Amino acid sequence: MTCKNFKCLYVAAVFFLFLAFPTTLSFAWGGKVVGVSDGDTVTVLSSSHEQIRVRLYGIDAPESEQPFGTKSKQSLSGLLFGKTVEVDEVDVDRYGRVVARLHVGQVDINAEQVRRGMAWVYDSYCRDVVCVDWRRLEGAARGSSLGLWGDPRPMPPWEWRKSRRGASTQGVQHKSGVEGQLSGIGYHGNQRSHVFHRSGCKDYDCPNCVVIFETREDAVKNGFRPCGVCRP
Question: 145, 131 in Cβ contact below 8 A?
């Protein structure tokens, strides 16, 4: 097909640019922050009155049990709690959480946590162009010993989680066809409803309860909520 008019040429040019310069598609929506779990995870009440758990894209904050874990959560709470945010959705993680960049007005919340020394740039997952700027912010925070960088040897949370899994030999597991062998161990999470149950609950070994957590804290951290019947 040959283009003989301006409209046809315009469409062809746009199509060419799309092929030559592919971008990651995302969309934004707004809501009010009604909960802050830690320094990189919040709950947003959408305009449809749905509570949605949101994991901040490209950063990783200290875990609650780590040094500065509480301060990182307090920092994020001060930036977001009770405020209306723009949620620029990037992905959905394996726990069903929306992965997004958050903005309050002109403030890039993900970047601000890094700038304050309250989170690392999550190198394994931060691949957007903006991550280059965030790494500069991290370097500046480190050079000024801000926040977690006041510790001479801070441990990145992904390494801390790995060390915990190695120590316990369990962490988060999946049954993967070994039903019965794991019965009575830790807490079972329903991979569809994201509800977790303790041993003895009538739904402990439900068909979709294939995610295993060693502790209650692990289940909550990974986006699961406690069963309303057994109240683990």
Answer: no
Are residues 40 and 61 in contact, defined by beta-carbon separation less than 8 angstroms?
Answer: yes
Helix H or strand E encompassing 98: strand 98-104
Render pLDDT for 28-84 as a digit per residue (tens, 0 to 9).
899 999 999 999 999 999 999 999 999 999 999 999 889 999 999 999 999 999 999
pTM value > 0.90: no
Catalytic residue numbers? 55, 63, 97
Question: How many whole angstroms separate alpha carbon 209 and alpha carbon 111?
Answer: 36
Q: Please name which of 154, 175, 186 lies closest in space to residue 61, comparing C-alpha atoms.
A: 154
Query: Percent helix, strand, coil in the chain (nearest 5)?
Result: 30, 25, 45
In sequence order, what are the residues at sequence separation of 6 or more whose Cβ sits closer than 8 angstroms to the Cβ of residue 138?
A: 114, 120, 121
Q: Enter the tokens of residue 193.
A: 């409803």
> Taking all residues of the chain, what is their mean pLDDT, rounded to a whole number?
83
Residue 86 amino acid letter: E
| Coil, strand or helix at 112 | helix
At 123-144, the pLDDT tens digits run 989 999 999 999 999 999 999 9
HSE-CB of 21 using CA atoms within 13 angstroms: 3
Strand pairing of 98-104 and 51-56?
parallel
